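Discrete fold record:
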Amino acid sequence: MRLGTLPRGAGRLVQFYLRRLRRQWPQELLAGAGIAIGVALVFAVLVSNSSITGSAREVVEGITGNASIQLAARGGSGFDQATVERVRALPGVREAAPLLEQRATVAHGGRRAAVQLIGVDDRLPRFGGVAARNYQLGGLVLQPGLILPRRIADELAIPAAADGTPLPRIAVDVRGRRTATIATAVVGPAMIGPLADSILVVASLPYAQRLTGLEGRVTRVLVEPLPGREQQVRAGLEAVADGRLYVGGVDDETRLLEQATGPIDQATGLFAAIGAFVGLLFAFNAMLLTVPERRRFVATLRKLGYRRARIVQILGFQAVALGAVASLAGLAGGYLLARTVLSDTPSYLTFAFPIGIRTIVPAGVVAAAFAGGVVATCLAAAQPLADLRRGRPIDVAASERGEQGQALGPRAQRTLAFVAAALVAVGTLLALLVPGLTLIGAGALAAATVLAVPAALALALRLGDVAARRMQRDGPGGRGNMLLVAVRELRATTIRSLALAATGAVAIFGSVAIEGAHSNLVTGLDRNFADYLDGADLWVTTGGDENSLTTQAFDGGAALRRARAVPGVAAVRPYHGGMLDLDDRRAWVIGRPAEDRSLIPRSQLLEGDLERANGQLRAGGAVALSKAIADSLGAGLGDAVALPTPSGPRRFRVAAIVTNLGWGPGAIVMRAADYRRAWRSDDPTAFEVDLRTGADVATTRGALERALAQPALRVQTTAEREAQFQALARQGLERLTDISTLALIAAALAMAAAMGAGIFQRRVTFSRRRIQGYRPAKLRRILLYEATLILGTGCLAGALLGAYGHLLANRFLQDTTGYPAPFALALPQTVATCLLVLLVALALTSVPGWLVSRTPPQVGLETGT
């Protein structure tokens, strides 16, 4: 195509770009793949994170409809149903409907599913919620049975019922009781909308009360005020609550869930941003392959008199077109990742929130990810535009050392190194002065990693040059000579080499920083749960893994007597636990028996003396608070705090400050007797069982199961329960590992693809070296030295700054979120990660390297000099 007949207008710009694609399609494909990878990672994580709270919001709206206020119990046993009539009689109340909610397990055909059992009455549909309204169709809730959402029915393998077929029999375990019942209906999205993907199992209020043994009790009242009367209704509800019940908005559940997921969302968001950075560098690498040709093209246009605006229009259109197509591909890939790899409900949340996640794609997330991909493409394609600056000679690229457009002078390297050091200082100050912004500081370290690569590579090339000259004794064709050639080749392609090294550096940085903190967090959680379980040989609980925090109560009177009579049992101690909504978080409350060896997990103590704190808790009227809760209450050691409990506000003395004990929003530890008084309930959530000296664990366990004679109660050894906690901790953080793995794979593939494309682009150079007498084996050795220098530099820079990022991430986990995460440098894991990226990239580039090293000498002769 002649430059003098460049097309004009949008249609002609498209035609011109299509002709360019026919000539440069491999580079455009690589660049588009890089952008698509970055968009996919970010989009998948944003969709996954938003799906958690989005699903919860849909459940709330589907049930509550027009209701805007709730009166809720602070304990699991609820409050007197007569309170509902007092609420309905308040001035300004249009409608009020009670609910009874309990965690339960349903079983059918050998399969089990954890659910939220919810009892409703005939007033709930009046709020207009789509799900609540349709539950009344056909009188479903009037029948003695359970209505299952499609998701739970699928987990239990219950098929869609046909006319005339008997209703399936199911078993429901709730509050330590097992009851045989029927599934009166399986309802899908057509009937209850998004609640078909939830874990809500619905029954009539009287039937739910009978199943749970909570006759005459409810746990929540939803209230719809008359227009303009909300404040009046809230004041009336506060009077009814009298400090014993919670008054708030119906959307408070979503707000508390957002607080609980906040730390993990921030961490996964940071890692996704690092993954996007890898994708951007991938695209930048591919674009660099075309920079010499595009800079010559810009120079030619300037010689022909094209205005700068016209040149920007041509290059800008190409970048936007590539970015749009790549971003669309990234959105599709990200949606697939969100539906598969990142789709599981984090089980650590189901202890306290009745959530069932379905993939929700907010329009704002789509727009942000798409726009980000287009902008990233424009940035990656912007280098040739630098030649349009005023005062720049038309042939500026031809005057640079090495390949055109590849030079980066010492002054620029020093400037970038200075900026990198400044970013490290900024990240450090943020972590020290504003701990809540530590993850932003980690992002600054990621940027510093990239900016430090030029100086690191220059040092590596200088060391390589020295090593090569010392190896010259092997002769002009020896290893030193090949290393010297490799060093010179890299200096001739500085920008491309830096982009490759930076890709590896930022991926290694992310893996070392996040996976290091992840490893420390898992270690801390393991120690926490080992201390938490210490002191009992057997545990009796209700439910399954969904009750790992031991918050589901059961009637323990008769069971306690039978357990204590089992041969081989030395002692049985009732344990109590539950969830308590404070102003900004849902806290885990632990009521430990005073006879326990330690009421506070010894490895989790942050402030205070362990023996003294245990003594204060055993004496009563004292608590140990997680640091996050103590900070939110403005309390320190020895201070008095008022906690809202089912019996009204209770004052406790702070005996110790601890970590969050593995529950993000934080924990409160007290003695069991204080818990029973404050919660006005003797129902335990577990039994701690000590065995007599010499008693066989397996034999005593079997005898205990037979004595309890209740299949809804579960007997576990301490070792089994500890393994359950360990599996839970790893599952709760699985998304971090998934994203880390995806980012590393993306980085290895990005570097291999870019290096492979760069190698193929040098076929003429290698054929000319064949003319000079270089054998294919020596050419492959040159490529091996080049790849090792590039990848080694990137891995080293990423590992060093990643270790510092690991330290900052640990500080964030400990100081900001309160998680137990003692710092320990994971050196073997860091080395393994670097070797993995290095070996995978070298293995993938060996094929193009082998092919190009065998390029016939005629190719160099045919292309001329």
DSSP finds 25 helices and 21 strands in the chain. The first helix runs from residue 9 to 64.
